[in-house]
Amino acid sequence: MLAESTHAATETIKRSAESTAKSAADALESARVILGGQAKAIEASLSQVSEMLKRMDEQGDHLDTIDEKLGNAFDQFNRQVASAVEGMRSHVTELQQSLMPAVDTLREVVEQAQLFMPQSVGRGR
């Protein structure tokens, strides 16, 4: 009877140990699956962050290109406006130089005409 009890107790302990070992193995497998899924999710997130950073770099490069083009356009605009203003200034100077003799002549004509005008115009009413 002692041998039978010992054998029965041993069998119970053996089944309990096998059950515990199987439960532990199942728990480890579940943990491996969960951690593997989390690792994949983290890897996917990191990949998305890397892609976003790459796009931001591309947008930064694009903005730098736009900034450079705007700077060049502004410089060209300034040069053209300065050239136009200088052209107008030269034109005004030429007009003054060419019209001044005519204005001087007109002034002389008016002054001479005033000398010959009768002084009594307007008094004889």
Describe this entry's structure for a reader.
With 125 residues, this protein is mainly α. The chain is 92% helix and 0% strand. The mean pLDDT is 88.
- The helix fraction, in percent, is over 70%
Largest sheet: none
Determine the number of helices (DSSP H or I, runs of at least 4 residues).
1
Strand content: under 5%
What is shown here, in short?
With 125 residues, this protein is an all-alpha fold. Helix content is 92%, strand content 0%.
Structural topology:
Layout: H1 2-116
What key phrases describe this protein's structure?
single chain, 125 residues, mainly alpha, rod-shaped
